[in-house]
Write a structure and sequence with these properties.
Layout: H1 4-8, H2 24-28, H3 47-75, H4 78-93, H5 104-130, H6 136-143, H7 146-158, H8 164-181, H9 189-212, H10 217-245, H11 252-264, H12 267-288, H13 294-301, H14 304-316, H15 322-338
């Protein structure tokens, strides 16, 4: 038995109420005194270097879709996967974590990391659940829509002006996503979870833009991963408790032991996800976005589904059909159309 609110129930507005309202954290953080936020200790890279860094991050992200799907298919437990993945990543980043009681700078870093960790947890949890029900390549292109959602959220939350070109590119992206979703099979619940993951990912990118220029990248990354790991652990324990509550099911200790056994069988994949696509990639993202705006970073991230489809083909043997390829082409055309759209800042 999977946790009803995330894995078994169909995606509906009633199951995700926070997606229908302005997130409290997004608003509350903008009302305080910005002078309380500390300046970053890590020097910001040049724009050219930052773009190279973010391109490298995108390659790493592209590789993770197929790896996540292989682990979820083998274990049937996205919650345990994320608990192990982020638990290891948080331990690796622990030496760089800000002090728990260290004055305003440390408190502000933890506050920022806690908010980012909530968005990260939501995004990766929704992605992992979605990959139980849809293909890795299809999920990658649906998650790409975070690129289109970043400027939309910036408009809704901060009043940033959006160029007509951006709205046009968003329409093209939606058309491509529709074709992609009907590629050989009708839309499924996994597509909906992937779209929800794209929304939370867009919120994460937008909020990271605000914090990455103010805090040390390593400390911010450590605080973010610690928060995400704690939330994932709570999710895994709750899901295991639900499983154990089924009449005739094993007791909680036995359920946890079985999950640990399944995860141990996926050790190489879990280490890759934890150390490379999480701990390393998140730090590089925080470093790169010191010099690149959220909108420009989102354009770089648009190559994620391309890399995702390539890795899915190489590792899982997945192939997009003609309609799916047409949809993917429209999605990527939307990137070219939005380039140079010229959104104004806050």
């Amino acid at each position: 038995m999977r946790l009803p609110s995330l894995a078994a129930a169909p995606l509906a507005a009633s199951t995700l109420p926070y997606l229908r309202t302005t997130p409290l954290a997004l608003c509350a953080s903008d009302t305080g005194d910005e002078s309380a936020l500390s300046s970053a200790d890590t020097a910001a890279p040049s724009v050219a270097t930052a773009l190279l860094i973010l391109n490298g991050v995108t390659v790493l992200w592209g590789s993770q879709h197929a790896v996540i799907k292989s682990v979820v298919d083998a274990t049937g437990s996205p919650e345990a996967l994320n608990a192990v993945r982020f638990g290891i990543a948080a331990l690796v980043a622990l030496p760089f974590a800000p002090e728990l009681v260290g004055g305003d700078d440390s408190d502000d870093t933890w506050s920022a990391g806690a908010e980012l960790g909530c968005w990260m947890f939501a995004g990766f949890a929704l992605q992992a659940v979605g990959l139980q029900l849809t293909s890795a390549s299809r999920s990658a292109f649906l998650l790409y829509l975070n690129v289109k959602l970043v400027p939309v959220l910036a408009f809704l939350l901060y009043g940033r002006q959006i160029a007509a070109r951006t709205w046009a590119s968003a329409a093209v992206a939606v058309a491509g996503t529709t074709l992609l979703s009907f590629d050989g099979t009708p839309p499924c619940a996994g597509d909906g979870w992937s779209l929800a993951a794209a929304l939370t990912s867009a919120a994460f990118i937008l909020r990271l833009e605000r914090y990455s220029s103010r805090f040390d990248a390593a400390a911010l990354n450590a605080a973010t991963l610690a928060t995400t790991a704690a939330l994932c652990a709570g999710w895994a324990l709750t899901a295991a408790a639900f499983d154990s509550a089924v009449p005739g099911a094993a007791e909680l200790p036995a359920t946890l032991a079985r999950q640990a056994e399944l995860m141990a069988g996926q050790a190489p994949a879990l280490l890759y996800l934890s150390l490379v696509t999480t701990a390393l990639a998140n730090w590089l993202q925080a470093l790169g976005q010191k010099s690149v705006s959220a909108q420009d970073a989102a354009i770089v991230y648009a190559l994620d589904p391309v890399y995702g489809a390539l890795f899915a083909a190489a590792l899982l043997g997945e192939r997009l059909g003609p309609q799916g390829l047409a949809g993917a082409a429209l999605v990527l055309a939307a990137v070219a159309l939005s380039r140079g759209g010229g959104e104004e800042g806050e």
